[in-house]
Amino acid sequence: MSDVAINMPGDRSDDAPEEILEGKLIVTDPLEPKTRWESWLDSISDWVNPILVKESRQALKSRQFLATFTLLLACCWGWSLLGVAIRMPGIYYVPGGRFMLVGYFLILAIPLLIIIPFFAFRSLAAERDDGTFELLSISALRPWQIITGKLGSAALQMLILLSVLAPCMTFTYLLRGVDILFVVSILFYGAVLCMLLSCVGLLLATLTRARHWQVLISVAFILALGLVCVWVCFGGSVFINQAMAVIPFNQPEYWVGQACLLTAVGCLASILLLAASARISPRSENRSTRLRIAILVTHFAMLAWFSRYFFKFDGEVGLIAGYTFASTFLLMVTGSMMTGEDSLLSARVRRGLPKTTLGRAFLMLLYPGPGTGYLFAAANLIMIFVVALMLAVSKGFNGRNQEVEVLNFALVCASFGVFYLGLNRLILRLASRSTLTGPVLGFVSCVIMIGFGCLVPLTVQFSLAKYIPDSGDYTMIQLPNLFWTTVEVVDGNNYAEIGGLLHPLAAVVFVAAALVLLLNIVLLPASVHVRRVATPTRVQQEEAELNPQPEVEPQRQSPWD
Fold it and tell me: What pLDDT, on a 0 to 100 scale, did the predictor assign at position 224?
């Protein structure tokens, strides 16, 4: 019988692990301190997203990833041999890096811009189709963990595919004619665009649970990805061949511009991910506050960057118009979805409302509800015009024509935003009595309303062409037409300006927006005036059991304690 050695500082427990080493039975102590490396690995494993682990294992074992990886590797090898053969024997004397880089870029675009984003879309949509999403929803995983896990799986696949193409694209630097920073930029922005499209796919996967709508969204999304891929391939090929030499990598302003671009992408990706997380959250959760904070941060980031370039280029008023258009578009899209939110607040949400009157005055617009959502969007739209006016005044506004046009453009954009979002809120308020509304319905309703506001006046005016002289010109019938009215305000061919500052059409749209805003304020739902409720004792006990806090001995706070 072999010797038995028992290594234990105390009494051995029944579940102590046993190891056989050199014919001896070693019983290790489960309370033996771990090494620093093991402790570090344990702490890392606690932070790993389980959805990321599950999705990564499924994706890397799937036939889709194996086929994509094999085809990508074969295309890289094939183009490396074919491209060099085409350029022979001039490749020894003439730089051929750009020619080879274009081929690798086209090979890279297909998996990054089509396959991986569509995989992210299907990975979340399949959870609903297979009926496994209900199991995820009742688990301890939060909606944010589910969304980021799906995105992390797409990022892991992207990194594996980039590991195939990165050496080949770096090889083009040795063929001359290509800057290494340019190659790194292509790889980096390809990855950024891939992740952004994946975020869009995750949001689209949460829009509906009906199978027929899922099929329609899948077809539309794959077609949209194909168009984006074609556009990027065409633009990237032209840029590599013609514009690569003019990139000022040595200029600090170039890197400032890249920071501005990455800020925009990061803000947009955060809004998409938070919206997707809110879509799969239970109705009892607060699904609006984080998303509205992200929208507000995005608006302020846009304001900061546009202001920076406005003062740098000595008051270029075109930047005011750019800020106005971008901010109005963002708030029209997000505001239409906020006006379709549920007006009922759960007890869990009400327990998190502000306590004080001052807190309710400043923070209530960040909490769920269609009324607060509309006021949040309207406040930001009003701020757009105020900021445009302040920027114009800061550079010595003197009533020049170009500055007047930009300020009228800002006023009419903000007014149309407040007007159409307010009408959308009133319509959804009536519709909520007979049907269930939602952010998707709010967005669709706003788009249809703007469409009718443009098409109906055009149809009426052209139908009365024989009664209206010069029916092709702008008339007051086109006042609801968002696009034609805005162009007319900026152009100002048919109407004289009042006092050299305010266009009459801008004044009319402003009055209409003010009336709609006042009507919405009067008809605000009762959810805006809901007060905070106390947390029940049972909920406090459950929270204490789930999140136990260490007992702290009372300490003296003053000599009289």
Answer: 94
Q: Is the pTM of this model over 0.85?
A: no
Strands 18-21 and 4-6: unpaired
Give residue 499's pLDDT band: very low, low, confident or very high (50, 70, 90).
Answer: very low
Residue that has been written with the tokens 């706003």 in this structure:
446
Token duo for residue 419: 């007007």
pLDDT at site 20: 46
Q: Which residues pair with residue 6 across a beta bridge?
A: 27
Average pLDDT for 456-481: 79
Residue 154 contacts residue 200 (beta carbons within 8 Å): no
**CA separation for the pair 184, 186 (Å, rounded):** 5
> Tokens 């379709």 label which residue?
340
Q: In which order are the strands placed within the sheet that holds 24-27?
A: 4-6, 24-27, 18-21
Residue 7 makes CB contacts below 8 A (sequence gap 6+) with: 26, 27, 28, 29
Written in H, E and C, the secondary structure of 248-262 is CCCCHHHHHHHHHHH
Of 170, 164, 163, which Cα lies nearest the Cα of 72?
A: 164
Q: Half-sphere exposure of residue 374, counting CA atoms within 13 Å on the CB side?
A: 33
Q: What does the DSSP assignment read for 483-546?
A: HHHHHHHHH-SSSPPBTTTB-HHHHHHHHHHHHHHHHHHHT--GGGGPPP-PPPHHHHHHHHHH
Q: What distance lies between CA 209 and its chain's CA centroid?
A: 21
- What amino acid is encoded at 60 in this protein? L
Q: Evaluate if residue 119 carries a pLDDT over 70.
A: yes
User: Is the distance from CB of 513 to CB of 415 less than 8 angstroms?
Assistant: yes
Which whole number is the average pLDDT over 542-547?
Answer: 63
Q: For the chain, percent helix, then strand, then coil, each to nearest 5?
A: 70, 0, 25
pLDDT value at 25 more than 60:
no
